[in-house]
Write a structure and sequence with these properties.
This protein has 11 helices and 9 strands. The protein is α/β, with parallel strands linked by helices. A 9-stranded mixed beta sheet has the order 1-2-3-5-4-6-7-8-9, with helices on both faces.
């Protein structure tokens, strides 16, 4: 696989956390995978020695490098996360997945997307960063569905550490069943479970009712079939490197029980449960209206405890 980095116009900016904050280089970065070019952002604190670098993998659907969705939600969760790391002398690369935003041309037709391709892309990004002398330990961080991608990529990539942030321990079809059960009328719930049964068996279902098109449209079904084959807890159990599990208590998409299952799968992993943190890493009460508002508020700060736990874990991986 051919790897290539394109570094464009250099931008300097100073973070505003405090006077001692490092100067950080912000650069576009790209990766030629051999099956399409992927684009991302590099934040690199200036340092006279290699700094840790975190590969940030976005969650499900058309979610871009910043944690924003093409379907309308803009909260800059992953962008803010990268800035938090930079303030603590930790570099990061976050990227648009193939088929999303600037990386759309890599796989413009979602019928051709697969979980395996996402995993291969994460491995390629990680190999690129491991070969760069500016970087020290590599940490792979996946958010939501990205946590599964991180766990599947790690055995080949062999990073210094893996972070699961709001990642499910259950196969994704089980998560979808639970989420739909809380919101669907009986007739649609029955039909959605029938579709899930077919997809789990590796078969497409062309007869999707209008209200379910957003979830089960025929063009996304091949990807769902590939995704439903994966067992997140089993993938996490296979990790041999240090791992951190981070989960908020007011997350409406993934629960603390998932984090506890991941911990059971890998008992030597660290578990950080953050009171009041939701799926987009903000402190928000368990109120649907306020939760939905937080998904579209890029100015809302990330949970303070999140940054502390991430930095503490990564600092523990630095060479002494």
């Amino acid at each position: 696989m051919m790897l290539r980095v394109l570094l464009f116009t250099l931008t300097l900016f100073c973070t505003v956390a405090h006077a001692a904050s490092p100067v950080v280089l912000q650069r576009p970065i790209s990766l030629d995978t051999g099956s399409g070019e992927l684009f991302g952002s590099l934040l690199l604190p200036q340092s006279d020695k290699p700094v840790p670098v975190v590969l940030i993998i976005a969650g499900s659907g058309p979610t871009d490098r910043n944690g924003n969705s093409a379907e309308g939600a803009r909260n800059d969760s992953l962008k803010r996360l990268a800035l938090v790391l930079a303030r603590h002398n930790i570099a990061s690369v976050r990227y648009d997945k193939r088929g999303v935003a600037a990386s759309l041309k890599a796989t413009p037709d979602e019928r051709n997307l697969t979980l395996d391709a996402y995993v291969a892309d994460a491995v390629a990004w990680g190999q690129l960063l491991k070969a760069d002398p500016r970087f020290g330990p590599l940490v792979v961080l996946g958010h939501s569905e990205g946590a599964l991608v991180a766990a599947l990529a790690a055995p080949e990539l062999e990073p210094a550490g893996v972070i699961s942030l709001s990642g499910s321990a259950r196969p994704v079809d089980q998560v979808i069943r639970q989420q739909l059960a809380d919101h669907m009328p009986p007739a649609l719930l029955l039909r959605s479970n029938q579709i899930l049964d077919r997809l789990k068996a590796g078969q497409v279902d062309a007869d999707v009712p209008g209200p379910l098109q957003g979830i089960f449209r025929p063009s996304v079904q091949p990807y769902l079939i590939s995704l439903f084959r994966a067992d997140p807890a089993a993938a996490f159990a296979r990790l041999t490197m240090p791992a951190l599990i981070v989960q908020g208590t007011t997350d409406l998409q993934v629960g603390v029980a998932d984090a506890e299952r991941l911990k059971q799968a890998k008992p030597d992993a660290e578990l950080a449960v953050i009171p009041g943190m939701n799926h987009v890493m903000r402190i928000v009460p368990n109120d649907v209206k306020q939760q939905l508002s937080s998904y579209n508020d890029p100015q809302l700060p990330l949970a303070d405890a999140l940054g502390r736990r991430l930095v503490g874990f990564i600092d523990g991986l630095r060479p002494r």
